Amino acid sequence: MASIEKRTTGGGEVAYRVKIRLRGFPTQTATFERLTDAKKWAQHTEAAIREGRYFKSSQAKKRTLADAIARYEKEILTRKGNKAVNARQHLRWWKEAIGAYTLADVTTALIVEHRNKLIGSTNKYGRELGASTANRYAASLSHVLSVATDQWEWIDSNPVSRVKKLKEPRGRVRFLSDEERSNLLAACKTSDNTHLYLVVVLALSTGARKMEVLGLKWKDVDLKRQAIVLHDTKNGERRVLPLQGHALECMKAHAKVRSLHSEYVFPSDVKNQPMDIRTAWENAMISAGVHDFRFHDLRHSAASYLAMNGASLAEIAEVLGHKTLAMVKRYAHLSEAHTSKVVARMNEKIFQSLS
After folding, report:
1. Domain residues for 266?
2. Contact by Cβ (8 Å): 320, 207
3. Distance in angstroms (rounded) separating the CA atoms of residues 198 and 252
4. CB atoms within 10 A of CB 103
5. What pLDDT is attached to residue 17?
6. Sign of CA dihedral 265, 271, 274, 279
C-alpha cells in the first residue's frame, strides 16, 4: 500500500514523500512538491507494480521485446546450434505478436492473452496447436526475459514467471500400427527427399529424436562397431545407439554415396548444415494416409515396439536416454503380457513342489 508523508523543511518549504510497500516487491519512494502529484504517482506506480509494468531501469522503456529477442538469438541461440530450432520458431512468433512493445509494457497479462491465442490455432501444415505447445512457446519467451533480467539488467523481473502453466494432457502414446508403418515407409521411399526413408528408419529403429538423427555427423557413426554415438543429447549425457538389421544395412549403403562436402550424414543442399525434412515429412504423411502423427511419435513407436517385444521399462529408458523410469511408465501397459509371463515363470518355479 502507498503512504504519503508531509514534510516541512527548515525554510518552511513543504514536500510530500510517497512510499509504496507491496509484498514481494522492493519498496518504492519518491518526493513531490504538490500533494496531487504525489497521489497521482502513487496510484499509477502501485497499479503498474501489480500489473508487472513498473521497472526502475530506464532500459525497460528504451528497449523493445524485439530488441531482447534479437540479442538473445545472437548471444544465446547461436551457441545451441541445431537444438534451438523450436526456440527460434517460438521467438519468431512472439516477435511478430508483441515484438513492438517496450519491455516495460510486456506484462504478465499481455503474455497470457497472446499465449492463449495459440490454442486452437493451426500451423502451416494445418495442425491444431494445444496447451502443451502453448506452454512451450511461453517457456521460450521466459528464458529470453530471464536473461534480460539476470544478465543484461534490462528489466527487474521476468513477467512470464507469474504466468500459470496451462494444464497439459497426459503424455500420449501414439505409435504406428503395422499397416500405418508399412504405408509410411513406402511413402518415404518415393519421396522427393531421397534421405527421408533412412531418416525415418533410424528414428524407428533407435528411438532417436528428430534433431539427433538430422544432426548426425559421420565421425559419430561407427559401422564396424554397429553403433552411433550421440555426444550432444537433450539431457546432456553421451548416448550410444545400436545399429542393427535393416537400419545397419541402409546406413552401409548410404555411406557408399555420402557427400564429401559435408560432415553431416544428412546435409542440406544449400549449406553445411542438417537438411530440413518438414515438407517432405508432411507430404509423406498425407500420401500414406497417416493422421494425428508427429515425427516425435516415431520415438514413441520405437519405445512401444520394445515394450511389446519384451523389453523392461529400465531397458526402454536406457535405449531412449531417460535418466529415470518416470518418462517410460507410459509404455508399461504395453509390456503387461511380458510381465505376466515373468510372474507366471516365477510362480511355476517357487510353487512347483506344491502342485
Report:
1. 178-341
2. yes
3. 11
4. 24
5. 86
6. negative
pTM of the full structure:
0.58
Q: Is 207 left (phi over 0), alpha (psi -120 to 50) or beta?
A: left
Contact 205, 214 (CB under 8 A): no
At 78, which CATH number? 1.10.150
Give the C-alpha separation, 11 to 213, whole Å. Answer: 78
- Mark whether 117 and 29 lie in a shared domain: no
Cα separation of 227 and 223, whole Å? 6
Contact, 325 vs 166, CB < 8 A? no
158 and 68 both lie in a single domain: yes
Query: Could you tell me the CA-to-CA distances from 278 to 49, 77, 92, 112, 196 in Å, in that order?
Result: 43, 21, 17, 29, 10
Q: Does 185 lie in the same domain as 91?
A: no
Average pLDDT score over residue span 225-229: 91
Percentage of the chain lying above the pLDDT 90 cut: 33
**For position 78, what pLDDT does the model report?**
84
Domain count, the chain: 3
Pairing of strands 2-8, 14-20: antiparallel
- The region of weakest confidence among 75-79, 114-118, 181-185 is 75-79
Same domain, 190 and 313: yes
Our CA angle for 290, 294, 300, nearest 5°, is 100
DSSP-assigned states of every residue in 179-210: HHHHHHHHHHHTSSSTTHHHHHHHHHHH---H
- Specify if 351 maps to a domain: no
Are 35 and 96 in the same domain? no
Q: Is the pLDDT of residue 286 over 90?
A: yes
188 and 322 together in one domain: yes
pLDDT in tens, 119-150: 988 877 677 788 888 999 999 999 999 999 88
Per-residue pLDDT reduced to its tens digit, 159-204: 998 899 988 766 666 888 889 999 999 999 999 999 999 999 999 9
Residue 355 lies in a domain: no
